[in-house]
């Protein structure tokens, strides 16, 4: 396994049961106890909730948060609701982001056409029109804006975890244009747009936004250009957002896993059978990360004390690929 296979949250359609992880969430009392009533608990929104990492993040946060689980697989969402009390929200966030972008482009084009017809040429009107209509329901022309909708399903938001992602192997030479767009939309555009929509509530609660990145975001490898592009871009978004929100009380963090035992990793490595049963053949402890460790890293970020914020957490395998020897330990 090479570091080019390092991945973040699983695709929203991937299934890796939370209770099938090699080691379970639990054993440590959560810092926040919460009141008995669900309405008194802090609220967490988790995207990619039906993926290999997402399910375990939901399971951990549900111990002391009201969790809104966002994904596309309705079967897994129902199970998360039944077993953990999570509240399901079915959405394709990449499609919602793409629809927003298309709507804004239509608005700008319509405005330009109208001015050509009337002889107007004030370019500032273009920007004002796009800003006024780009994120509102009017510009969507009847399409569902799942991002705006998600921002209104709860009155408060204390935590948002962006675990939804896509990862496919492509080089610059052979990557189709659609792959660049797909990776950018889900891995960068959607979390940025959703965070923007949630910022008023995050500011009120002095909440935390957690973005699941990847080792590929800082260590690109040949044949992994498209995915690495999206994860490098995500670092830029997150680091800028942290500075922009520094005085509002919002904490912004990145958790970057190395190669993690999820369906997305196996699909990226073109192992369809392993993607369906990712834990069937256990690998040595030093070779691949148990996804439960990513949930624990998210918990570490969420539970940071009031005087600090955890900005970057790298979750690495016990032995890096380049350092492995045939006589490595066997846990």
Q: Could you explain the architecture of this structure?
A:
The protein has 331 residues and is of the alpha/beta class. The chain has a single domain (3-95, 146-323), classed as NAD(P)-binding Rossmann-like Domain (Rossmann fold, 3-Layer(aba) Sandwich). Helix content is 40%, strand content 11%. It contains 10 helices and 7 strands. It has helices at residues 52-61, 74-84, 93-118, 123-133, 146-150, 177-205, 225-244, 263-268, 272-276, 292-302, and strands at residues 43-47, 66-71, 87-90, 159-162, 208-212, 251-257, 312-315. Helix 1 (52-61) packs across helix 10, helix 3 (93-118) runs antiparallel to helix 4 and helix 6 runs parallel beside helix 7 (225-244). The longest helix is centred in the middle third of the chain and has 29 residues, at 177-205. Mean pLDDT is 79; it is low at 1-36, 126-134 and 271-275.
Mind sketching the topology for me?
Elements: E1 43-47, H1 52-61, E2 66-71, H2 74-84, E3 87-90, H3 93-118, H4 123-133, H5 146-150, E4 159-162, H6 177-205, E5 208-212, H7 225-244, E6 251-257, H8 263-268, H9 272-276, H10 292-302, E7 312-315
Parallel strand pairs: 1-2, 1-4, 2-3, 4-5, 5-6, 6-7
